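Throughout this chapter, every protein is written as a compact record of paired, labelled lines. An example of such a record is reproduced below:
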Amino acid sequence: FPSHDMEGSCSGTIILNPQFDNGTAVLGDGTGVGIAIQSGIPKNIGVKIVGGYVQGFENGIADEGIGTGVDGTYFEECSDADILTFNGAILPKFENCKHFAAVGTAAYKLRNTDGAKIVDPVTSSGGRTKMLDIDGTVTNTQVELPNNAFSYNNPIGDIGVCNVISAQTKGTFSPTIEGGTSAGTCAYNFQNGKWTRQ
């Protein structure tokens, strides 16, 4: 259950199926960071974490890098956040991650981050105080929720500075005819409009 601290030049590192557990049930102390992707000279670029699990830390992953990717990783019992981005992290992408167990403030805590993308997260219902903790220091962030898992992602949390969309959103509207300078008047037989956002 030791954490992995990526100092210096660890660009391009791929961590496959990590199995990091610092929980008290395995004689850990529940503190620290599971995987730390640090900034510095040079900044870590393109670090990938695929599969596995990270649990029992204050933060499962702490990311300050550029282009970090996390795909299909399971998180549990991280007391602050499963994934924390901060200190100028750029373009991180988190896909298909699972966030379970009723411990922890947020699945994702973003600070001073640009261009983050969170795709198809699943957080157990009531398992976190909130799925997202994203403050005003974050820019250009997008969250895509899976259509079939909204009940597993409540409460969503603080999303005032990011774009949250489902994988596919559909709706209807009533189209109208407008003139070049004024709407004019007309009689409609049908006004049926449909839209889909992918």
